[in-house]
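Bump. Still looking for Mitochondrial atp synthase subunit g protein structure tokens.
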Amino acid sequence: MASKLVQLQSKACQAKQFLAKNGGAYYKKLLEENKQYIQNPPTVEKCNELSKQLFYTRLASIPGRTETFWKELDYVKNIWKHKSEMHVPELGIATLFGLECFCWFCAGEIVGRGFTFTGYYV
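Sorry for the wait, here they are.
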């Protein structure tokens, strides 16, 4: 355990040195590439205005999102009603989608527990 701590400290020190050496140049390059998104002058009032614009724009998009959700739900209901008419490729896609959802659920559970695996003794 102590050797892993020393390795972690070593890697952290290397990362710190890399950032100290290259961080400023990367920061300047990033700002230069994205200068069209920067508001001048960068005041608190402008930041508050932009955050309100983002919030209310997202709020205004909710009706469109709910409409899309109900359309997709109706599509899934229709497929479920006519499941006997589904072909093998469609069943494969549905199976892969279900498997992907299950894997994301499992990954979310692991992340929620702080990246610990419970119930397994290694």
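The mean pLDDT is 88.

Edit: fixed formatting.
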